[in-house]
Amino acid sequence: MSLPSNLHPDEASPPWLNKGDNSWQLTAATLVGLQSVPGLVILYGSIVKKKWAVNSAFMALYAFAAVLICWVGWGYRMSFGDKFIPFLGMPNVSLDAQYLIDRAFLGYLPNATMVYFQFVFAAITLILIAGALLGRMNFLAWMLFVPLWVTFSYTITAYSIWCPGGWLAKRGLIDYSGGYVIHLSSGVAGFTAAYWVGPRTTKDRERFPPNNILLMLAGAGLLWMGWTGFNGGDPYTVSTDASLAVLNTHVCTATSLLTWLILDCIFFGKPSVVGATQGMITGLVCITPAAGVVQGWAAILMGMMSGSIPWYTMIVLHKKVWFLKQVDDTMAVFHTHAVAGSLGGILTGVFAVPKFNRLFYMVTDWQHYIGLFYGFHDGRTTAGFRQLGVQLLGILFVVFVHATMTSIICLLISLVVPLRLSEEELQTGDDAIHGEEAYALWGDGEKYESKHNSV
């Protein structure tokens, strides 16, 4: 197809545009999008009771669409735009054609690519929060929660940690691909929102079997494979660091899954498929803040810890700690994302390789970006402890921001619509909420009319 006569070829592909990097960035973003739609849509719709399948899947689908409109309307510029206040960018639209085709802050990608790539990360964060609220949140309340949370909560940590002007970014916090911004954030926000929404019915809490484990595995598989773009896309270039991040991601995830599986076999005598899926998720989460800045042996150690520590907090500690028992976290996002994300952030502060950090951050700063292990090894112990301190500071900041903002948002929504479904809706599920059901099976809500009756 020929170009319009009034358009010069250099305007469509200017000299500064790196076509290979741009192609990979768009591909990586789409892989992350597929983690949500259809990945988590399928996983949520199949891991819950049959009566909650439609509602759970639709919470994820709605969040994906709603976040996109907020993101291009004001969210992207609040997260990555000009400074407004020390922890937030100036609200502005990202829909102007000239802005979208201009070069992004990295210099070799257009803004449109960056807006799209960062959108899928914002969207999956809200969808992960939904995991803590399945089986009882009023859908109208969820429709309000999504735009409010992405606007007033997500943007704060995204700007502070990922935007070059953010205060934690300036202090050298290492969050390679979202261990803090996405996973710790969603784990804390999900747990907090679950507290305000309240629990599922007693019957659902006591027994909540998946309606389709095979379909759940399909969703989990999309989640795992999509993580290639999740972590492999964050160098924003087709680089050796991207390759390292991808391999470390899969090595840590496999190790974590196997560790969780072994623990289930030892203590429960059976290899749980749902348990293995949880181990897969904790491995993916734990490696995310470190993916391209640690060595392979560190990825294995992180996998062993992400398959055992969240296992312990979920299976053992959760039943002993009074406060944890009071909150009904349907998908255990507190353990799989908040605990695993915090663990990954701390271990990043231990195992981060200075050389890899300089490749990723494109800096020559020897006082930042050094794991404690290498601080001891290189005789820069103070710098190593400083890095670990920054990682811990980041955890405290994310917990404070999202626990506070999520509480405020939930309380405000409760003044408009109930956060929790009515008792009748809780008993019936999908049919009462949406007028639709996941399966129409003979003997299961559908009246069977025999040939004899129809003659």
TrEMBL record:
GO term, biological process aspect, one: ammonium transmembrane transport
Pfam families hit by this protein: Ammonium_transp
Single GO MF annotation: ammonium channel activity
Spans through the membrane: 24-45, 52-74, 115-134, 139-160, 180-198, 210-227, 247-269, 281-312, 332-352, 388-417
The keyword Nucleotide-binding is assigned to this record: no
Primary location group: membrane
UniProt keyword annotations, A-Z: Ammonia transport, Membrane, Transmembrane, Transmembrane helix, Transport
Superkingdom as given in the UniProt entry: Eukaryota
Membrane topology, record value: Multi-pass membrane protein
GO cellular component: plasma membrane
Residue ranges constituting the Ammonium transporter AmtB-like domain according to the UniProt record: 24-439
Location(s) in or outside the cell: Cell membrane; Membrane
Gene3D superfamilies: Ammonium transporter AmtB like domains
Family annotation (PANTHER family): AMMONIUM TRANSPORTER, AMMONIUM TRANSPORTER MEP2
Family stated for the protein in its record: Belongs to the ammonia transporter channel (TC 1.A.11.2) family.
Stated name of the protein: Ammonium transporter
